Amino acid sequence: MAFLAQGQTGVLVRSTCLPLFARPRWRDYCGIRSIFLRDIGYFRGQGGTTVSIVVFNTGVVDAAPQPFTFVLRSLAKIPLFGPRLSDYVQKPLIPHRALLSRIWSYRRTLPSRFRYIFNHMVRQVKRLEMHAISIDTPLTPLAMEARSPGLRESISEYNDIKHENSDVTHVAMDWVLDEHYVEDGHHFKPEGHRLLADRLLLAVHGHLKQ
Amino acid sequence: MNQDKVVHLYFYTDSVALPRIEEQALEQTWPFLLKDRLES
Predict the structure, then answer these.
(1) Would the CB atoms of B7 and A208 count as touching at under 8 Å?
(2) What's the gap in Å between the CA of B9 and the closest CA on chain A?
(3) Which of A102, A172, A176, A199 could disulfide-link A138, Cβ–Cβ 3.0 to 4.6 Å?
(4) Inter-chain contact A208–B29, Cβ cutoff 8 Å?
């Protein structure tokens, strides 16, 4: 957990996918909902001059179609020889991800489950009289479709699910261009970070004026 | 700006919020840039 407290603004950043926070190395994903529900008990609510805002940026991991062979990644969990077994069985399949996805793919979080989790988290925020902001998942570059077919359509579907909730301020990401991404098509270059911060600033100001 | 208010920001994100390449510092990411903009 990274916590910063300078001046009058406190920033709490939680990530579920980076090795920034201690976690077993085989857990490449842990439920953001469980972390959120564990943390929210410590959140400060509204009161006096305090304004608390929760910013959600979730969905891309949930929406990404994964080839059925992804389950083989669990081979690496086997003690001792698991990593080597994974090298021989699972890693040779990685270059064929697109083909395998077209045969059969699945999403880590079903749309119905994602809707339930997202709405539940927003309800918890509102229960504590805090504000909620949700950042749309930006569409990945078209070139990514060659590696992960159906990803853009799936992202749009999950964005629509988030937009069903009117208790949260949605930040559109239709301004994102291919050149804002690094080579992986997911992470932002510095310019992308700056532009997103500018748009979030507008959303935060909207809540501060209330 | 907002000298009369204490603002708490909580971010729940996928890894895309944070830098992938080593040359990028955590302070260059949008949660921290937002904080800087609010304090400026």
Answers:
(1) yes
(2) 5
(3) A176
(4) no
Predicted TM-score (pTM) of the model is 0.78
Q: How far apart are CA A14 and CA A31, in angstroms?
A: 12
Roughly how many angstroms between the first and final C-alpha of chain A, as a whole number?
A: 30
The interface predicted TM-score of the complex, written ipTM, equals 0.87
Residues with Cβ within 8 Å of residue A141, at least 6 apart in sequence? A178, A181, A185
Q: Say yes or no for a CB contact (<8 Å) between A15 and B14.
A: yes
The end-to-end CA distance of chain B, in Å, is: 7
Four-way CATH pick for A2-64+110-208: 3.30.460.80, 3.40.50.1360, 1.20.120.160, 3.40.50.1110: 3.40.50.1110
Q: Which residues of B touch A193 (CB under 8 A)?
A: 28-30, 33
Unique residue bearing structure tokens 């069903």: A164
pLDDT tens for residues A2-49?
A: 333 333 444 555 544 332 332 322 333 445 667 777 777 777 666 677
